[in-house]
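Minutes, methods subgroup
Present: GH (chair), OT, SY

1. OT presented the first of two proteins processed in the latest run. Sequence and structure tokens recorded below as shown on screen.
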Amino acid sequence: MHSSVNNRKCTLKPLIVVGLCLIFAEIGLAQSPQSQCDRDHTDIRGHLISSEFIRSASRDDIARSFATLGWTDVVVKTGVSIRRIVYTTIDAHGAHTVASGLLALPTDIEPVGVVLFGHGTSTQKSYVPSAPTLEGETVAALFASGGFALAAPDYVGMGTSPGPHPYLNAAAEATASLDLLTASRHAARSTNIELPRSLYMTGFSQGGQTALALDRAIEGGGNSQWDVAAVAPIAGPYDLAGTEFPGLIDGTSPSSSAYLAYLALSYLQVYRGNISDIFQTPYNERVTLLFDGQHTLSQIVQALPAPRNLFREDFLRAVQAGTSPFVWQLRENDTMLVAPHAPVRLYYGDADTDVLPANTQIAASAMRSLGVNVEAVDLGATADRPASEYLGLPAVRAWFDQLVAGR
């Protein structure tokens, strides 16, 4: 189900046109472009623009695929249908925009719950779940074959969404996810399927932050459309200020400079900073070109120096002293103090050098101090970044199955 379409690009017609308000007017969300733009954001968020069938797979197809992966313990209950969703949302500055995502539905049984999956870091605009990628198809098959509806946002600035991607911006991840869930409910109804209220959240790496940010938006915001049943992120950077940024500056991963440049450039765009105050010459001019949505992470890694040669020395000194605005920006996007009412399992691998295990250990301790029912699940001493996802995903599915059976 996954190998032949790994690099397939979206076939949707471009939705990026001059004046997004014209789009909203065309799809019946406004009487006029001007009147719609003046309305409250919640009036136009989560509206379904399009729902495009991509493909389906039978139970036998999925079982064979899982056997190839070595996921022989995963129970395949149903076939799966995958759709590409385009919907309205807001960007990191609160402006109206559109975004895309993947929706997977069980074909042989009614959904037992809804899973929201946040995908890991991608620097390519087209390498997103709805493309679909290998990650997107595998996750869709894993959860939807268990009877769950699966929604996976591409994120703002990715997929069909215009503008730069606000990487590791928790608020933008949460709004893109919440609005995809709303649009997915409309898309499912168009196929005569009603999505349950029970919501299970997971995600890998960047998507781990997404899962906790979404829980904060739902449970902290009193959103009544969804009942959070469980939160199970995998290897997420929850402690950006205290663990992830300092660790990557020391070069824990071969990709450290690429992650750090992506993060710093994102926050410059979100919080409107000066790029020359952070990056050394000539990288103050090069990083924007590298993160144009077309370069792979490997290409960016090869084009950047070690972290301490990438950033200005005075910037790094100010970060270490806690006097740089970048420090509070990181703290604003930390998710270690999110306090779900639902049970939480934080999965991590001891050998992950990209997202340091201390993120999970510190987050688990912080959540316990807030009274959260949280467990840190160690996936093993040899579990590096890829192994964390490979081992973590079926473990999350098994836990969600247990929770559904125990309801």
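2. SY then presented the second protein from the same run.
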Amino acid sequence: MKPLNVEKVTKTFTKFTTPIILEQKPNTRRCFYGELTRDDDGVWNLRGNIIHERKGANGWLPLDGEKLSHLKAGEISRLELRTDHLKKFIVGLQILKEAAEEEGVGFGDLDLVVGKRDEMLQIDGDQKGVIEQLISNNYSTEFWDTLATLRPDVTAQLADAEIMRRRKLAVEEFEKELNSGQWKESNWETFFKVNQWIFGLGLRFQFLNLLQNQANYGGADVTRRGEQKGEFLMNTEADERFTVLVEIKRPDARFFQSSPSPYRNGVPGFDTDFINAVSQIQVNTHTWEMEGSKRAKDTERLSAAHIRTISPRSILVVGHTKELVDHDKRTAFELFRCRLNGPEIVTFDELLARARFITSNSANL
């Protein structure tokens, strides 16, 4: 917990300048100001003063009057603390205790009791400390529920800010691993499963949602051999939804053969693994459309969610545009993917640029 505001007067005396508000009206308030004193044995003790204050031009100031210790017998018969005063007093003492411990002042086995969870203490100038105190006492759920009820706009802003913070961290991780080249295909699959928001708007500006990872598209024989599986089975988002297949390869996968001589003049030869990856997702898409999506249980489950399979789209995430170092390769690659009926081919660095755009232009989305 962050310490409350304190003023160290001497080595053996410290004052808390942040009060416990027992009662407050527009122009007057009753407060408890905590103090820490160290006795001759080196033991620190918590004490304090209840003060009646008036609001002036320079803030809250004590009212003129005699101190209680200066009054003679009979000049004051009692000092009343109502129920609400006492509850705030008890909660405040707990906060002061923990603040004192942050200052290195221990209280041994002393344990002060906290009031009911719905009792809120007003501590001017240290709202963060109060919130941290609520969380440390496992009141975070009640605090959040109350905030959502009283100020739903603030709750929504906080939630949005936390989502954006996590997304920006994911973009940093994306860029770091893309540059290091250490992740395997399975690592990228896990990353995109956790951060499926990166696919967010599909390549046709349709929102994509993860339906199933490591989906079984079909193709197995009676021995269950030959099952065709893919990374992600996704679906578009709307009143009626349609399935989309996504296959993840590696950012260092090559588009073209490493041979220095082109297939023909001006026509660089495509890498066999790249062509096979394209063929793989094409076959998986066909199998899913003709077989997997027609399985009785899958049909029933997907139909209930208004998810259809009609000439399903497919997306292949593979490679990096840094390989396109000359005119022939750039031309061949772009012509190939633009004229390919399926899959839609997107490179890792294009996906990273997309994630950056989402996190930096969220207000415009």
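Chair's summary of item 2: The longest strand covers residues 44-56.
Next meeting: continue with the remaining queue.
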